[in-house]
Amino acid sequence: MWFVKTPAANRIAYDNDGKNTYAGLFGQVEYNDDKISAFLSSTVSSTTYKRIDRYNYVGVSNGGTAIESEGVNIIGYTAKGGINYNMSPKSNVYLNLGTFSRPPFFNFVFTNYQNVVVDPLKNEKANSMEIGYAFISRNVKLKANYYVTEWIDKSLLSGRIPAPGGGQTRAAVSGQNALHKGLELEFQAKVGRDLSLGAMVTIGDYKWKNNVTAELRSDLDQSITTVDVYADGLYVGNHPMNQFGALMKWQISDIFDFGAQWLFNDKLYADYDVFDRDDPSAAGEQVYRMNSNGITDARLGASFKLFGLDSYLQVQVYNLFNNFHWSRGTDTSAENGWIVGGMNYGTDGVGQTPFTRDGRALKEGFPGWGRTANISYKLWF
Which residue has the higher pLDDT, 36 or 163? Predict the structure, then answer.
């Protein structure tokens, strides 16, 4: 397939280049002995953005000279530190702390297809902490970890949504805060010479922490319409916050080995629709919660010699029982119906309850893969 450059006379809405210039410094110090290890690292960066417009200024769209913006310089930084204490040769505890301030992406520096700088221009920031414990021996491995991450002034760009004056646009959301926290547990044990079993648990809670204002940017006349978005207390979508899993590895013989994994996904919410969250009377109404699901994967492998060379043949099957599940989605109010996979399923009614819950519905959804399989072969020489 050949990619061609659209002729200047055929370009619509916008035609521009973006120039980024970046410089950074990094430093790290470490300390190690038999009991304690620690590190401290930091970075500082300078990013300069320029936008070169060939369309949205007088004379430019008719072949005039491109207009280059002034350089916008933004400073960013990171700082991370951690300490680990070996309680014994088999167990340890650790603590990690971090913070960063990241310059916004190019789409959030200049507003609405013009060389106009967003005001106020804010870095995305985050503060994080994790504390954990690990025990590792010849036959048993145990890990536990608790984490908290605070996001500040996060910037988001929506997909295509209806524009107030007709057509479609994108909503630029900035200044949104979120709090992610959770507990992770992992366990593995060798049972006899040929069998290993394991389990994992993840329990999380991710929520947006404030209401924000979104800009609806028109690519037709470069107008901007602001919309209040009531996101405070909504769950962050498109990621299962609770997961429970089990796995096994069995060396059947010198040739054959078998493995299987089961993963149960729970507390999976759709993302919120910016255009459907501008009603103050619905503030705090939780987004659509997708159905929980358990997925089983399995594999069978064989080790053998071929022409005197070591080789390994493996068959893997994903979603062995072909369970239907959602991988991500966007919610809307139940009264507006929903669209799944490009098809309109109408409004709430008999037999349609799997797609509505607590006054919310799935506007757009992306199902996870059904049963799939692959075969791989490795040869060492």
Answer: 36
pLDDT at 347: 40
Contact 95, 76 (CB under 8 A): no
pTM: 0.84
Spell out the SS3 assignment of 263-275: EEEECCECECCHH
Q: Who contacts 43 (Cβ-Cβ below 8 Å, separation ≥6)?
A: 24, 25, 26, 27, 77, 78
How far the first Cα of the chain sits from its last, in Å, is: 36
Pick the closest to residue 74 from 12, 37, 14, 23 (CA basis). Answer: 23
Q: Domain ranges in the chain?
A: 137-152+180-204+240-381
Contact yes or no for 189/198 (Cβ under 8 A): yes
C-alpha distances in Å from residue 89, one per residue of 38, 56, 83, 85, 188: 17, 66, 17, 11, 18
Report the Cα 33 to chain-centroid distance in Å: 37
Residue with tokens 């507006």, as numbered in its chain: 336
List Cβ neighbours of 36 (8 Å cut-off, separation of 6 or more).
83, 84, 85, 86
Q: Do the Cβ atoms of 131 and 158 come closer than 8 Å?
A: no
Residues 103-160 pLDDT 10s: 988 888 887 778 888 878 889 999 999 999 999 999 999 999 999 999 999 988 776 7
Hey, is 197 helix, strand or coil? strand
Contact 269, 298 (CB under 8 A): no
pLDDT 10s digits, 77-105: 999 999 999 999 999 999 999 999 999 88
Residue closest to 285 by CA, chosen among 232, 335, 323, 245: 232
Instruction: Give the residues across from 249 on adjacent strands.
Output: 196, 259
Write 68-72 long-range contacts (CB < 8 A, 24+).
Answer: 68/115, 69/110, 69/115, 69/117, 71/21, 72/48, 72/109, 72/117, 72/121
Quick: pLDDT tens for 173-210.
Answer: 888 999 999 999 999 999 988 999 999 999 999 999 99
CA 376 to chain CA centroid, nearest Å? 29
296 pLDDT band, cuts 50/70/90, is very high
Q: Cα 252 to the chain's mean position, in Å? A: 38
